[in-house]
Amino acid sequence: MGGILASMIDGLLVGSVYGLAAMGLSLIWGVMDVINLTHGSMIALGMFGMYMLFAAFSTNAYILLVPVIVGGLVLGVIVYWMSVHWVVGRPPLMSLLSTFAVNMMVIGIGTIIWSTSPYNVNFSLPGITVGAYTFTGNHIAAAISAVVVALALELFLFRTRTGKAIRAVSQNRDAAELMGISSTAVLATAFGIGIALAASSGALVSTLFPFTILSGGVYELKSFVVTVLAGLGKPLGALVAGLLLGLLEGLVSPFIAVSWVPLIEFGLFVVVLVFFPKGIFARANA
Amino acid sequence: MKRIGVCFFVILFFFCLTAQAQTITVGFTVSKTGALNVDSLEQYNGFELWRDQVNAKGGIKAGGKSYQIKFAFYDDESQAKRVQQLYSRLILEDKADFLFSPYSSGLTTSASIVSEQYGKVMMTTGAADEKTYRQGNKYLFQMFAPATQYLLTAIDLLKAKDPKATIAFVYEDHAFSVAVATPAKPYAQQQGFNVLFSEAYPPNTTDFSAILDKVTASKATVLLGGGHYADGSTLARQLFARKAKMNMATVLVAPDSPKWTELGDAAVGICVPSQWEPQVSVKPQFGPTVAEFNKAYTAKYNIEPSYESAGGYAAGLILQHAIEQAGSLDSEKVAGALNGLDATTFYGRTKFATDPKEHGLQLGHTMVIAQWQKKGGKLTKEVVWPLANKSSNLVYPIH
User: Fold this and answer.
1) In chain A, which residue ranges form alpha helices assigned H by DSSP?
2) What CATH number has the domain bearing residue B92?
3) pLDDT more than 90, % of chain B
């Protein structure tokens, strides 16, 4: 019983990071109807951003999350103007191809710089031991950081003028423009925030596990599952769905081989798509 | 004067052509990038040291001629799909006379399909899985002791130290590690051990939380498993971070690398089944002594050799010996010389199976168990088994 409980707690801790990663994907998808295929590579850039900052400053890795978020925001706005602005409102295939191209460029350049060899951020915080089980300090700190960033985003979206503008554009772009909101600036900001969230989740993952420039792909796939679970354009829902996915991983792991866990996850993905196409929370609201 | 000049250049041209022909091209791929890069690059260092030493001494002598060794190699990115293309290229475009295998059993199995198709001798190193040698190959020769030996040796050590231990097997779902773990489980049970947990994890796993929770819940006292450097080092880091109190942990391959010291305290106490350690003494029939190899390697790379490095060097040394014995570069003749070989070098004994059912399988080489210990605040790797070769006693339990 202790093993199952420990596994569920581990699942929840890592699930918060899945949730944070998915919030970025969900925000962009919801606001501008763009499936951002740079998501995985931006998570990987967040990992390497943390790695380089930690190598340069050797301070508490979780403080370094702040410059990673700022860097992600700037990079996101640049990527928006490079590849997304021109295809917003066009058929979905255009934005898929455009963001996929940027993804390939980032991975190509990243491979040249860092190769595909694994890297580690050698930072560790003391953990908490309960009986025979220890929960590492890094897992706990990463989970807290993810929740703090997620709540900060929620406050931003509901309490600030820019946040409200993002929500307005998300709900009805034409009506928002008639109210004097510059939708282009809002879209660029939303894309920047989405990338900042992806990069910050990557930075948190880098404090937990070794990573390569290709590591973002795993979290991108999980982000799709989480986003579909939560429903589009529901960032806080994405955090909750991430926690649920982590909990599910933790719950099933003691009973089946870990190799089978992805099968359960993607099985759930298909079930939700078929029976709850607007996400589990949309169904609950209805 | 003009005619003399022309003659001189014609002679020089033919001299250059002849000189160019006096080379042996050895082709191979290295995992410069990807999950296998640490182990693969150490193996490459062994190849390189062998080539440089042989060339400095005038090359390989065969049939009254001396041949300089030339390498043709590419980065396989640790991916099997790259290996088949690259080995075809090495044979067809680079005209490789002989081949070294890539690193790891999985990649070698892919490469061996091509090498056999073209009848090229391939010395395999870092490819311990026996299955590859049981597919009717004729030109494949294994330098490492077969995969089955890895954990059987560790279980023998455990039997001597703590026959009441309980075991958890946690290993990479990869050709090599599966080949290691599969015979080890029934062997452990035959030896009277209770195997409380056994699970394979997917290659490239980075999060061992779920598996380690299961190991803790099983109450096993000894962990046996791992795979390669990337996953093995992560497993050890997380074992330490999660304070999973094991009396003994034996991890495949990864702890043999000198890079293991980067793990700091997480490295302490971890055992590794090893193909070769510098402390083991043997009397070589040819080639350098253990001390000479260590000295040359450390001088060139500023780091101690791992068993992958020694295996790489030994692969070259054995190939060289076979070419010299055959007196020819002909694949059939060199393969014949390798089939008849039973020799001891600094790396230990080497003898290949000639039975067509398992041709090329290594029969002569044996393994040792090494453990990372902290002595005077410094991490050192000590041989702890077999007792005849030990340089230190096993630290048991670790914590």
Assistant:
1) 2-32, 39-57, 65-79, 92-114, 137-159, 161-171, 173-178, 183-206, 216-230, 235-252, 261-275, 280-285
2) 3.40.50.2300
3) 77
